[in-house]
Design a protein that fits this description.
- There is one protein chain.
- Strand 2 and strand 3 form a beta hairpin.
- The chain is built from 26 helices and 23 strands.
- It is flat and about 100 Å long.
- By secondary structure, the chain is an alpha+beta fold.
- Helix 23 packs across helix 24 and helix 24 crosses helix 25.
- The strands form seven sheets. Strands 1, 4, 6, 7, 9, 10 and 11 form a seven-stranded mixed beta sheet that branches.
């Protein structure tokens, strides 16, 4: 293979601008942006990088000059005059650009190797305004606005515009912000502008007009004189290999798979600057300097102009064929074949264009907006009490079933956690933004969760007191057998507080989950309906848990996860066995261990999970996922790998046997995983795998051209008739045509799903995620040691008959200890 991707990891791809803390009021003072869209980008998480097609209404384009777009800002101010107390403003921009960087070759015959890389292209402006209504980058400049650094430069991508002020008498700064997307939709130069730019450079003292066609030949080819791409761009194929990177939204800088940026296709990511990506003039200068450097190094006294240009073109792209094509192009033909006159000053001709340094980052003066201060403000204003009562009252008006309230509460909490106080949205159930914006603006997540717990307890008391009629929200949950009955005096918070801190900290969902969990817990601890007996037993049992210390050394997260001593002894036995068998190194491959959580069973919600009692352990869950049978592409797996995931190997692994007997079966499943993922790595690999499968199953050898054509017919929307005819002509027997046709259509469709943007390893596996990242990535010796009778002797849910839970191993029922 001539091209190899060594790594498609883009470290830091989702590390974006961090939104500031919002604080809109301080006593009689107020500051709010009122003319710009206040909504977050769809699905945006604070601090992430919004890459989606949809943003909000604040999408602005650079001007073709190029210049920053005019940004009009209107603030609602209270209690101060901006003419006397200026408003501070700040514009931060960031493009997080992901592409592949080419590694250096050791030998010329080595394949080209690439690694994923992130380049952060950022800029920042700050200044002040003496008016509540002002414009940034206005033409002519707004006289009310000052800039702390140069304003005549451009940048784009995701932007956050912040305003802040601290009037005399205010306790601290007030601050507001909005999200903006800055694009290059209107910033592509016309071709004649690029040509004129090159002509002006060639006419400069010491140059020669012949330089212009030399440059035009490059820029006409590299990006067709375009600095910005009109469509979103997230992947491309080179030499038959799929390069997939974090998506660029539409109208962002042209960037090839290997970091070729803009009109000049500047392919040096370690030297790339914000201006090179967003200002076509700076991009041209960067590319021109490389070309001039190539000319200077290649110059020989007896060169003709065309020979000199050829070597410059050749080095610019490191390709002789590229230079040949540039020479034959319309612009290349304008470079004469006459000798370079001795009067030409080569040093002056090839003198690099000075590149302006990036401006210094200005200092943002806003201080003292820390969370401790925000808590004090909230307490002083009695925000929390009003907030808790507002939620309790609104929820109780809609929900009349306390069990349903317990079910719905985590969803309500998540709405608050992601709530944008300026989007003026309506929260479930009918809470207006004015009810909660002060608290959401003032508190971070742990403090917010604390107040939500208080609100739940108050809402539960109200709902429980009037639980007489069906809740309007019943349509959102499946019918339950009989909801729990709660005494009129029952308080979730008070009962929850009787549990030990260790238990409280490990109940999944906290106090809100307790009402729907308590009856199962009480019954399991032998005291159904009797909290006074059950809770002391619960607290006593959980003191017996110990740290797993599995693996015994290393940096795997969660290795100290609480487990029962019975499970720890089993895990220790697995370590001893692996060491004795010479496989101790597999323990170092573990990255994540754990799973302890007091909750219902994911695969059977009528039961408590064995994780609740420290009887189970999950290993690297995202790469050994819990996957329902219908989500596993079983037919394709068995056809491509010859392994049935529910076949004899899986059956034998349900019963403990000696390690030496267990390991071969674990290897079969592990190898099947490796083979299947490799088959779907890229399109050439899939074509090879499918060709081999067809030869093995249907006795026909398909030529490369035939497989290419078959894949074209199989691609959605598939041309089934043409595909059948092609396969029949290639020698597939009529009795196998339907099966072979379906196989190819399924394989191509699954490849498209697996390669779609956003597919990532999931704890709950999907057909796409297990195809791209695998279903069983645990080392076979480790899985065998967990199952083996001379090792841990655990039940491994990767061998289950139904849902496959490859991460999960647990004590057999006979080994589970008494709870009390």
């Amino acid at each position: 293979m001539s091209v190899i991707i060594d790594s498609n990891v883009f470290e830091g791809e989702n590390e974006g601008l961090v939104p500031p803390l919002r604080r809109l009021t301080d006593g009689a003072f107020g500051l709010t942006i009122v003319n710009l869209d206040r909504a977050d980008p769809p699905s945006y998480q604070p601090g992430s990088v919004p890459r989606g097609t949809k943003f909000n209404a604040n999408v602005l384009s650079l001007k073709a000059t190029p210049a920053m777009p005019r940004i009009d800002v209107v603030c609602d101010v209270k209690g101060f005059d901006p003419a006397t107390v200026n408003i501070h403003w700040r514009l931060q921009t960031l493009q997080v650009l992901g592409r592949f960087q080419k590694a250096k070759k050791k030998k010329k015959t080595d394949p080209s190797r690439y690694n994923g890389k992130i380049v952060r292209l950022a800029d920042e402006w700050t200044g002040t305004s003496s008016a509540a209504k002002f414009a940034l980058f206005a033409d002519p400049s707004d006289v009310d606005v000052t800039y702390d650094n140069a304003s005549d430069r451009v940048a784009g991508g995701h932007a956050i515009l912040t305003v802040a002020v601290k009037p005399p008498g205010a306790a601290a700064w007030m601050q507001d912000y909005v999200h903006i997307r800055i694009v290059g939709k209107d910033a592509n130069p016309d071709e004649w502008k690029v040509r004129a730019y090159c002509a002006a450079l060639a006419a400069a003292p010491g140059r020669d007009k012949i330089l212009a066609p030399m440059l035009n030949a490059i820029f006409a080819w590299e990006a067709n004189f375009k600095q910005f791409r009109a469509t979103a761009y997230g992947k491309d194929t080179y030499e038959g290999v799929l390069f997939d990177w974090p998506d660029d939204p539409a109208n962002h800088p042209v960037a090839s798979f290997d970091f070729g940026i803009g009109i000049s296709q500047f392919t040096h990511p370690d030297q790339l600057t914000t201006a090179m990506a967003w200002d076509w003039r700076v991009n041209l200068n960067a590319g021109i300097n490389i070309f001039l450097d190539d000319l200077r190094r290649r110059y020989e006294k007896d060169f003709t102009w065309s020979e000199w240009a050829w070597w410059g073109w050749r080095d610019y792209n490191n390709s002789g064929s590229y230079a040949d094509k540039r020479k034959k192009s319309a612009d290349g033909k304008l470079v004469p074949g006459t000798a370079i006159p001795s009067s030409v000053n080569i040093k002056a001709f090839t003198e690099p264009i000075p590149l302006s340094p990036a401006p210094k980052k200005p200092k943002w003066p806003v201080t003292a907006l820390d969370h401790a201060f925000a808590d004090n403000i909230a307490a002083a204003d009695d925000v929390t009490g009003r907030f808790v009562d507002a939620i309790a009252e609104a929820v109780a008006a809609k929900v009349r079933d306390p069990a349903l309230l317990s079910w719905a509460w985590p969803k309500l909490m998540e709405e608050f956690r992601t709530f944008d106080a300026h989007a003026e949205t309506t929260l479930f159930p009918d809470l207006k933004f004015t009810d909660v914006q002060e608290l959401v603006a003032a508190l971070d997540r742990p403090r917010l969760d604390h107040f939500l717990d208080l609100a739940f307890d108050r809402a539960f008391a109200r709902v429980n007191a009037s639980a007489a009629t069906q809740s309007p929200l019943a349509e959102f949950v499946s019918a339950a057998a009989s909801p729990p009955i709660f005494a009129a005096s029952f308080s979730p918070a008070q009962e929850f507080a009787q549990l030990s801190k260790f238990v409280r900290d490990n109940v999944d969902g906290g106090v809100a989950a307790w009402p729907n969990l308590r009856q199962a817990m009480f019954a399991t601890f032998g005291a159904p309906g009797d909290p006074n007996t059950a809770i002391p037993r619960i607290n006593a049992y959980y003191t017996s848990l110990v740290a797993a210390k599995f693996p015994p050394t290393g940096s795997a997260s969660g290795r100290d996860s609480p487990v029962h001593p019975n499970l720890k002894a089993r895990l220790d036995a697995a370590v001893t066995l692996l060491t004795a068998k010479g496989h101790a190194a597999v323990l170092a491959t573990l990255k994540s261990v754990g799973g302890f959580s007091i909750r219902k069973n994911v695969n059977n919600p009528d039961k408590l999970s064995n994780h609740s009692f420290g009887w189970a352990l999950d290993l690297d869950p995202k790469f050994n996922p819990n996957t329902k049978k219908q989500h596993l592409p079983l037919d394709l797996i068995v056809k491509i790998t010859k392994v049935d995931l529910y076949g004899p190997e899986s059956t034998r692994l349900r019963s403990p046997r000696p390690f030496d007997q267990t390991l071969p079966d674990a290897r079969v499943l592990s190898d099947a995983n490796t083979t299947f993922v490799a088959a779907f790595k890229d399109m050439p690999a899939l074509k090879t795998a499918c060709g081999e499968t067809i030869n093995r199953l249907f006795g026909a050898t398909l030529a490369t051209a035939t497989i290419d054509q078959a894949f074209g017919f199989a691609a959605p929307p598939a041309n089934t008739t043409a595909l059948r005819n092609l396969l029949a002509a290639a020698g597939i027997a009529s009795g196998n045509l339907n099966t072979c046709t379906k196989f190819l259509k399924d394989a191509v469709a699954l490849f498209k799903q697996a390669q779609a943007p956003g597919v990532k390893p999931e704890i709950l596996g999907t057909a796409a995620s297990v195809t791209k990242f695998g279903f069983f990535n645990m080392p076979a010796p480790l899985a065998a040691a967990l199952v083996a009778s001379d090792g841990a002797g655990l039940f491994w849910l990767g061998s289950a008959n139904g849902t496959k839970d490859y991460m999960h191993s647990e004590l057999f029922e006979a080994d589970q200890p008494d709870l009390f």
